[in-house]
Amino acid sequence: MGILDVAFSNDRRWIRVGDWFEVTRKPRSLRPADYETLPFVPMEAIPQGGAYEPRYDSKPGSIIRSGTYFEKGDLLIAKITPSFENGKQAWADKLPTSFGYATTEVIPLRPKVSGADRRLLFFYLLHPEIRDYVSERMEGSTGRQRVPEQVLLNLPYPEFSPEEQRAIADALEKIIQQVGLEERSAKTAEELKRAAMRELFTRGLRGEPQKETEIGPVPESWAAIPVAQLGVVKGGKRMPKGVSLVRENTGRPYIRVTDFKDHSVRDEGILFVPVGYEDVIRRYRISSKDVYISIAGSIGLVGQVPEHLDDANLTENAAKIVFERDDVLPRYVMYALASDACQEQIGRATSKNAQPKLALSRIEQILVPFPPMLEEQKEVVSVLDAIGRKIDLHRKKRAVLEELFKALLHKLMTGEIRVDELDLSALEGAGADSGEVAA
Questions:
Q1: How many other C-beta atoms lie within 10 A of the C-beta of residue 290?
Q2: 184 has which bridge partners?
Q3: Residue 8 pLDDT > 70
Q4: What is the domain count for the chain?
Q5: Rounded distance, CA 149 to CA 22, Å?
Q6: Which residues lie across from 319 on neighbouring strands?
Q7: Which of 35, 149, 353, 395 is the most exposed place for a label (fewest CB within 10 A)?
């Protein structure tokens, strides 16, 4: 049952948000110009999807002509589309002063009764059904609609005792903290991977002396070899004019640049060649042993398609490098093309027209830092793949935790389960300190 179905069914006690919270108003006597500087929160400084604290910029009080007054501890709810739909909201818990100003496109809320937990309202407003309910009541012209204050204040809200509010908020916060930890861990691993790539493609793994080349320092036994000497560069193919890709799985997937992700291909959103057109573009397929490189749009993305998408058709906005040499490991070349030395070359080789594009002939000329021994290529790949698996693991854990948060948010707020029935001991000590939640 939906959360609002429960709210309107009278099976339990529900109140209005406005019974416990109110919109913060600026004192009439306060003049921003009387202050040398004041914290200011623009819309872009408000996080979305579970992070608490916004970024606080500083503005001279004399230039603040408009803005939304708020106080330390207030919730800042973005009221304009699409910011509201995207879950942009914040809790000004660590505001460095007693008050500040924000974009005019937020509604500041604060408790007006003792025991009303701000965190619980913060989480409640992240519920997709609540967002949809409020969005349907936005006012204004298409594309610039806003949430009226009264819509938020009239929103049904479950009535819990202060102890229950705190316990539910603690449980949900614990999950959000772990989500933040996994996100930070993934970012740390990504930074490690970038650092490892810089080290590996300039120093190698054998402790060799370095030599200077056209693309910078490389190990003494390595060489800077053009792509054309390592493999054959071939283009992809667009569908015939007037023929559209389909969502139905016809057995012939078509890989677009938007499908490229993390040196691989994301499964969600894959489109397919319609039945009857397989032979029209049959020569433009990519093998899992090839390396793709985007040549239009987001230029320079490199990777390999997973085995279950082997022999898929490839977009005209990407090229593939086909390898036939036994002493060349395709995955090594993929990682090398993602290195700073090769990405800089790709940037220089990209045409500077209104629609930038990377020509196939320019790809052939890209110089790759290349070790002659296949075994060393394998060792480099092994190191980078291991870090990649760690990044993927953190991302998967985050996704699982986000789904857990959504499920528990719904069940706890509707009373389907009670907080004392939960066992979140596996998360004990895993998150950050209370109130420190990462985006």
A1: 21
A2: none
A3: no
A4: 3
A5: 10
A6: 235, 293
A7: 353
- Same domain, yes or no: 241 and 320: yes
Residue 16: Cβ-neighbour burial (10 angstroms; 0-12, 13-18, 19+)? middle
Same domain, 52 and 92: yes
Residue identified by tokens 């070790």 is 371
Positive or negative torsion for Cα 95, 98, 102, 106:
positive
Q: What is the CATH classification number for the domain harbouring 63?
A: 3.90.220.20
Number of other residues whose CB lies within 10 A of the CB of residue 28:
6
For residue 428, what pLDDT is reported?
59
Check residue 415 and give left, alpha or beta (phi > 0: left; psi -120 to 50: alpha).
left
HEC profile of 178-231 = HHHHHHHHHHHHHHHHHHHHHHHHHHCCCCCCEEEECCEEEECCCEEEEHHHHC
Residue from 90, 100, 102 nearest 53 by CA: 90
258 Cα distance to chain centroid: 14
* pLDDT one-digit tens code per residue, 306-327: 999 999 999 999 999 999 999 9
Read off the tokens for 304. 């390999």
Give the number of other Cβ atoms within 10 Å of residue 64's Cβ: 18
Handedness of CA 188, 190, 193, 194 (dihedral sign): negative
List the structure tokens of 314. Answer: 């490839």
- Check: CB of residue 264 under 8 Å from CB of residue 339: no
Question: What's the rounded mean pLDDT across residues 405-434?
Answer: 76
Please state the rounded mean pLDDT for residues 56-66. Answer: 94
The mean pLDDT value for 392-420 works out to 91
190-203 pLDDT tens trace: 999 999 999 999 99
**Residue 396 lies in domain:** 161-189+374-439
Q: Is 181 exposed, middle or buried (0-12, 13-18, 19+ CB in 10 A)?
A: buried
